[in-house]
Amino acid sequence: MQNTTRQMIRSSWPQMISLIGIISFLLFFLNLLVIVSYNTWVFNETVRDKLWVYLYLDDAEWAKDIVYSQAIDMKSDLEKKGMKVDFYSKEDAFKILENRLPNVIDNFEKYGIENPLPPTLYIQFKNEKDYSNLKDIVLKYEDVIINLSDLETEWFSFTEQERRSANVINLTNFITQFGYFLILIVLVIIIAFLLFWLKITFYRFWEQIEVEKLLWAWYFHIKKPFLIMSAMVLVIAFVLMLLYFLWFFALLNSYFVSVFNLPAIEYLFPLQYIWEFLLWELVILVVLWVLFSRWFLSRLISRV
To answer: How many Å apart are CA 186 and CA 180, to the nearest integer?
Structure first.
């Protein structure tokens, strides 16, 4: 059995190398699609339940203590109604902008512009009832809110926010579904390449298989070298795919760190699940291929 496997590898190694290269790039593309689809789905779930409003607070220095006290009370009242509220002081808002848009901050310093950002409440709500409660609560603190009129404008209205959220959700749904479709297509292409190579290799050893069949060899005995070779192709291609990703993420990570000050891999995929996901992906690919190729080889052997 080992001699047969080695003989098959020696006789078909150029095709195996070509196949490994093709499968590894297809697996690389497949996993890119998985990452894009996963992050689109996460973004979809985030948008689905997060309508939002910014409230800008009076930033007059003489009223600072009053404004901050009112902001804490307003935050507490809104949270009691089930809304998520984040409060950013002038300094906090400035630091966030500095992290995201450092060039803008450089221009502020260049032209002698002091921190122009007011204290801000970022409020997330889920439905029209929340939005109605929000308006009722903030009216009690209207003296410290400088953009209260925005709650009645078309941009901040619940209907307009709901429409914008629905548009984003529809777009991300389309991207996710199209991503799943492409993943399926890539899997079909991988299987097609493997089956084509398996069929060519099988016919190259037609006479030997014919002799084995005449000697009443078990089908599994005949199929085993082919199964071992195809499993080797998948495993080696998978390892090459990992090398491609290490190179790809090294380039992407340097870009993310320089622009967003955030490691790319932590942003694009949960770090604690990566190795578990890759292990399961490899196991599932190999098991599914072995099961499928056994059926395919049985059909080929039956024709000998």
So the answer is: 10
CB 175 within 8 A of CB 273: no
Q: Which spans in the chain are helix H?
A: 2-48, 64-80, 90-100, 102-110, 128-138, 158-204, 206-214, 219-260, 264-268, 274-302
Tokens of 303: 């024709």
CA 184 to each of CA 187, 244, 245, 273: distance values in angstroms, whole numbers, following the listed order: 5, 21, 21, 22
Count CB neighbours of 295 within 10 A: 8
Residue 124's H or E segment, with its range, is strand 120-125
Single out the residue of 141, 27, 13 nearest to residue 73, CA to CA: 141
How do residues 62-88 score in pLDDT, each as one tens digit? 777 888 888 889 999 999 988 888 888
Assessment of whether the complete model's pTM goes beyond 0.70? no
